Amino acid sequence: MNLRKYILSILWIFCALSPGFAAQKPLARKGVLDLRGNSFSTNIELKGQWRFYWKELLKPSQELQQKGRMVDFPFRWTDYQINGKTLPSFGYASYELQVLLDKNAPALRLQMPDVYSAYHLYINGELALQDGTVSEQAKGFIPHWEVKFLNIKPGTDTLNFMLQIANFAHKKGGMTSSMVLGDKNKVGLERRRIEAIDLLLTGCLIMGGFFFLGLYLLGNRDKAILLFSLYSIVYSYRIIGTDNYVLHTLIPDVSWYLTLRLEYLSLFLGICLFGLYTKALYPEDSSKWFSNSVTAICLSFCTATLLLPPLYFTQLINPFLLVTVLCLVYIPYVYTKAYKKGRPGAVYALASCIALMSVFAISLLNYYLLLPKLQLTSFLGYVAFFFLQSLVLSHRVSFQLKKAREEAELGLIAKSEFLSTMSHEIRTPLNAVIGMSHLLLQKNPREDQRKELDVMLFSANNLLAIVNDILDYNKIEAGKITFEHIEMDLASIARNIVSGLQSAAQDRNIELRLHIDPNLKHKLMGDPTRTSQIITNLVHNAIKFTLEGYVALNICLREQTDTHAKLSVEVKDTGIGISPEKQKLIFERFTQADSSTSRGFGGTGLGLAICKKLLELQQSSLQLVSEPGKGANFFFIQEFEKSTKTVEQQTMENKTPGEADKPFTGISILLVEDNAMNVLVAQNFLQRWGAKVDVAVNGMEAVEKLMPEKHRLILMDLNMPVMDGYEAAVKIRKLGIRTPILALTANLPHEIEERALRSGINDIVVKPFLPDELYRKVLHHINIAE
What we know:
- The chain is of the alpha+beta class.
- Among the domains are: about 25-185, Galactose-binding domain-like (Jelly Rolls); about 190-255; about 480-655, Heat Shock Protein 90; about 670-785, Response regulator (Rossmann fold).
- It is built from 21 helices and 25 strands.
- α4 packs antiparallel against α6, α6 packs parallel to α9 (about 315-340) and α14 packs antiparallel against α16 (about 605-615).
- The termini are far apart.
């Protein structure tokens, strides 16, 4: 007795010893199954001794043939011997059974399972059910698999079954599942439950597979996600197209040869895909040799399934089960290694293996007829497996997103540090260029020299503007930009902007106009620096793209109350204009209306983007009306709080002194700077304003040279050798010296202001500085010190 029969015998004996077993499971004896007196409270499987006629397709008759051999039905032909010889899988046979019923039995229904591979079922001499076409030879034989039902006529007391089965296609022949007879309202309920579970699980797998496929295609190009999506889609056929063959019920006319190939392909390809998925999931813990070997075997089996007749490729299932068992051992081994090493989602992967192994164990035992299908248990195992695998991938995606976010944050930090370093390195030499240009212009140069100095100063300011644009946009993106809320004279700002850009307009032979609403008589509360930046960008942009005509800056008072004023700021030009399809594009960073624009007119394409962002952060918006060839009109409407002060003339503090003015006469200033060119620039300006300047080249020398009774102000560079400006300021404050300290630095204020404040530094002057800015800051802190 082989192992399978031994286990079956033990299971049968165990069941036979169970209370009420005989009553619950009546068996046919000598071709007769007596169900008289049975209440059909449970469905009856038509098992037991049937008459068997090998190589005979008997004609149905009302009377039993009373010949043939008794066999335990159902069984596969390849498991049965006649005269010491095992029957082949190819062949045909007839089965005969008589069922005795009570005439007053409840309405009954018969459930007929699929067979290998076609049958005709006659009941009481009439063809009752048919699946495929039986024949005594391969010609004319048509295989098909489908579960079917038949309602028994009420009052029938005898059912004479004649079942003809033929197989000329599959490696298995005969029948492995039992026919079921029972109450009409109960038979079929189990089948519908099975179909519902299979359809639900198939739908879940397909939807899950397409979800992960979409995730792969539209975003995360993770190979593991792609392989799992393909595995889910392929394996969904195993649920609906095998075992219970629900697909055959849904599509009765589907080709048996096609579905059989799909059944085997889904198995071979499914194992292949899951092995590759495991390798992609944890490549460092997987064996490349094992994965490649399994892949090669699976693909060779798939090829055989596509090319060979069913008789041959259906025989591959036994050797392939060995591959399956090896994978069932190998995959948990990989997941265990991954779990021990703390890989992302490994705990869920390991738990999913337990669920999968239980499902495969049930399938294998059912395949060898050692267990019933236990479909609900298998369903729960499948759900647990795919849910846990989804958690693995979700954890993996989350881990990758977290890693990408951390890398992006590090990238932003690196970018900010790079831009800060770039700003410092560019601003330092620009300070000398701009400063020396201003000094030379104040020495009454010849007219030709003045023009050359103007060109040099204009180019230097353009370079500074480009650096400022890039850094400003970086600050806006990082959310680090802040706005002041101080008094500002918008009319004065507008006049200064027009005055400063007048030469640029004259160089292009265009008129630069300014109109300020005469009803604007109050100062406003806002950020003068950012407001000036926005208007300057718009006016400069208009000048740049206007070849002839004019550029007009108009500031109009829309409405006002005692506390607030709503203004419209408009920059209109007669330039090249912008087509409607390009009008949104120009507000994107590093973008201009045409690729040739930057070559023809220059610029980074950041100015308008910065203006738009700055206005949006102040609850306003930049609007545009334009037509190609007819110029452009940029405007925004913004509400400001009104100051209590009216517009006044500029005070002395806001004017840069002329050659004859010496406002700092008798004042000593300590200049701490290691760059000789910057020393020369600052020293020249301060001395022209009457100040006496002492120079220190590092912080330590500054501490040594500082005389509180002499020096009224300290101009301190921050990045110096030996001792930097922060440390020097701390030492000076520890000595109890309260002399004002101004940081003279190429760093951006927001990068250093907190540390500067902690160090005891009073204010910041950013290089390259304009003479009037340096003058106002120095004058302000000297007056405070007095």
